[in-house]
Amino acid sequence: MNLSDITIAGARASLDAKEFSARELTDTYLYEIEKKDKDIHAYLEVWGKEARMEADAADATIARGESKPLTGIPLAIKDNILIHGRVASAASKILENYVASYDATVIQKLKKQGAVFLGRTNMDEFALGSSTENSAYGPTKNPHDLERVPGGTSGGSAAAVAARMALAALGSDTGGSIRQPAAFCGIAGLKPTYGEVSRSGLMAAASSLDQIGTLGKSVADARILFEAIRGHDDLDSTSLPDSLLTRVKPKKIGVPRKFLEKGVDADVLTAFEETLTRLRERGYEIVDIELPSLPYSLAVYYIINPAEVSTNLARYDGIRYGVRADAATIGEVYEKSRSYGFGPETRRRILVGTFVLSSGYADAYYRKARAVREVLRADFASVFNTVDAIAVPTTPTPAFKLGENTSDPLAMYAEDIFTVPINLAGVPAISVPMGGVNREGYDLPLGFQLIAPHRGEATLFAIGSDVEKA
Ligand code: GLN
Fold first, then answer.
1. Which of 122, 123, 124, 128, when mutated, tests ligand 1's pocket best, judged by the most ligand atoms within 8 Å of its CB?
2. Based on the structure, what is the number of domains in the chain?
3. CA–CA distance from 19 to each of 15, 24, 435 (Å)?
4. Helices vs. strands in the chain: H and E counts, helices first
5. Could you list the residue range(s) of the whole structural domain that residue 75 is in?
6. What are 424-451's pLDDT values in tens digits?
């Protein structure tokens, strides 16, 4: 079994043809994890025993001829997605002992298909960060260079797939947390349209931005997993009605050139231009577009995100949820529990969020940011009247070194420049590998990001597969 080449579709065919069993496949991945994860630290917990049991059940289903696309497929799950009876900590100390009391809707769907859950993956605490260094349990390393970050916040999921320690993975993306680590680790990562995948059972970070999505070795794998988890859910009030994923033939791709002029690594720009050239050779028309509000998106995001985070994290107070500190008064319980439980970046977001929502400042910051967000949405909508998709690099730089941005939160936030606008607009986007650069003797991957209109995932898969072929 060659783990490097195996895809979900390939594994499906081999499992159904009984070339190997689901148990063998799972054992192979568990062995890889044992071998490599000491160095990479993609997983916070590996469920070896349960995974083998799930694999045996999958083999029985396959033997009955009843397999579905993901029956027996070994997956990694980000630590902010609930699986009944298992710890889910969002990589936070405040939830170190929290055992989920129900399955997230996406997990229910995967269980119905007989997927195998290998373990829960490391992340930035509560999905706040861009490097997976904000985990309370230590950082994950980039499999391409162990001195570099895998990206964040779904860095554990991305590193697990890239290092062949899972066939595919679930992540969540609030401002780039699937696409950026996918780019840094050299795999495909999809952030679906807001409302396309149920958020029930995803720990809320910023509810108007959060979306569960998929990471795979190829666009096809990200798609298969997406098809398994999408669909309307009554448990999520922002869930969209069911729709068909049709075949499309997109032709025209827009590039916001002006926005690429500043702050982008020269090698990233070269790889981006080469990818555009190859797409042109495959018959695509590449045109310049304007998205005048794009330069404001980081500022808008870093107001709206903390505002919603500070509200959502209020529930972790040692009473309703989370570790409870010993204290004499209720006020002290809150103070001590939250001081013990939250890391520095989480506190920073709570403070900024509380400030921008406070009376006297809410108009100047939060409401202003929401108004600009509407302008940004309208800008995207009008551009999509003229092009099928928009392309930008996923990140302005290749993977940076561990510790490089930790003392400068603004430098860390700047890494999100190309990903946060998409969450603000609520549209879908995918990161697909686009070659790489050499840094200090290591080949580092880069990501090409495609953005489609609302519910335009089919467009992303069509162009994404052409980027892979190009
Ligand atoms: N890096 C962004 C942030 O820190 C996005 C994180 C995410 O998508 N969860 O908020």
1. 128
2. 1
3. 6, 10, 33
4. 15, 11
5. 1-470
6. 999 999 999 998 999 999 999 999 999 9
